[in-house]
What does this fold into?
Amino acid sequence: MLAGKLHFGTKAIFSRSAVLAGTTGIIIVLMLASTVISPMSSASGQVLPSLTVQSYNTTVPAQYQSQYSTVQNLLNQFNSSMGTAPSESNSFTYATELLPANGNQGPPLFNSNNLNGVENNLQALKAMGVKGVTIAVGYPLLDPTFPNSTQYLQYFKTVVSMCHQDSFTVDIESQVLFANTVYSPLTFNWSALSYPQYVVNHIAQDNLICSQIKPDILEIGVEADTEASLKGYTQLNTPSGWTSYINQLLNGIDKNGTKLAAGAGDWLKNTTQWVDGFAGNPNLDFISTHSYPVVSPFLSNLISLGQYAKDHGKRIVFDEEWCTKILQPVNGGGGGGYGGPVATQQDAFSYWSPIDTQYQQLMAKFCQIYPCEYLSPFDGDYYFFAYLTWTQQLDSQTFFQLHSILNPLIYQNEANFTISPTGAAYATLALGLTSPTSTPTPSPTTNPTATASTTPTPSSTIPQTAKPSLNPSPTIPEFPIQTIGLILTVFIITTLSTFIFTRKKVTRKSKLALR
It folds into this structure.
């Protein structure tokens, strides 16, 4: 293309009109400059500036090589079990959790810098092509009797408005606040609230969300065992009790334009039984699911739920998933016993990045095969932006200690539009630059002695949707020396030709004057 433009420009420069020559030359310079300055374009023709992708050490420590291989084999089995994706493309929203706005944080949401952090996060996600965000607003956060409920309501109205201004689809999870746990500073006395009154109150909170916060999707329940464990309501811990609960919510909510989703986590035994009793409720728009542990038979359950949704004409809101690598249960609570900080401690390390990448590709493939509406990796808002490199010293740290190191790196990378290789893989899917049906098997590095800094260095770039306005340090494009020389050459030729033709014109006028 450059050669063709240069050939056209050379012919124009030596035309009979000096003005035309100069003008054409200038146009050529601008065309050449735009060829180099403008980033690559997507298939749709949208201009895509560049995100910075950091490289990480993916060496698998010796003591985790067996676990790594087992997880990889489980993912390969899942891939085989799904079969081949259909040729027709199922359109769905690529999303992720908006963790700075997660309601479990409590009063820190009101800190003066929180909304700036939310905005930076949104712009970084937008740059990746992500078009949806999931926000946790668990009961009783908005209940009038709960401390600061009015302030929480205004906060989430503001955040959802910000999201909609940037054209994000917003999915609010209105399940249960993680009060009285390590994940939240908030407390709540569940024993003082009877189960029937809780159902009434939860319906009131959901109606408030639909009428005032106005998300696109409201997910009212999916983790039956987690809710039963946190609240102490044993009624929720059976398929029949869960069905009764969800139907009461569905029948009591005035959607006000919001679409409702409910379902079951893939770790629940006989997963489809947990949704069968309310899937036909006319107020239910989507079947929802969460997927975390990769141990058998949970990913098989996910396939069964996907087939159930297809058979019953329902689309799926997949609003929480991540590749939790732990292979044995670590507690007796919700999430099949595979939840909690112990289960997710190792996820912070970069040697898992190839596995995380493969898992996200498989989730996207699942959404191509089954009728998904929305895909939202929960931990994407962490590990799409940064990892820590494993060391023996860090291995002994808790999840929260590791994130006290990791979170500042995440915030910094969001502000600078820098992502991890896992984030790059998800961005190429979200931007439509690669197909989710291709899922290469990662090959781990097994040298246990290699280490690297916890702050990796940039190594490559991928396209992004639009240059965000909040980039604190815009970069100047770097031009190849050959291109600079070419531009200067054309500019010099244009200038000289303009000067020569102008001089000839003046000479002709002088000769005419002498006559």
Summary: The CA atoms of residues 263 and 275 lie 6 Å apart. Residues 481-514 form the longest helix (34 residues). The chain has a mean pLDDT of 82. DSSP finds 17 helices and eleven strands in the chain.
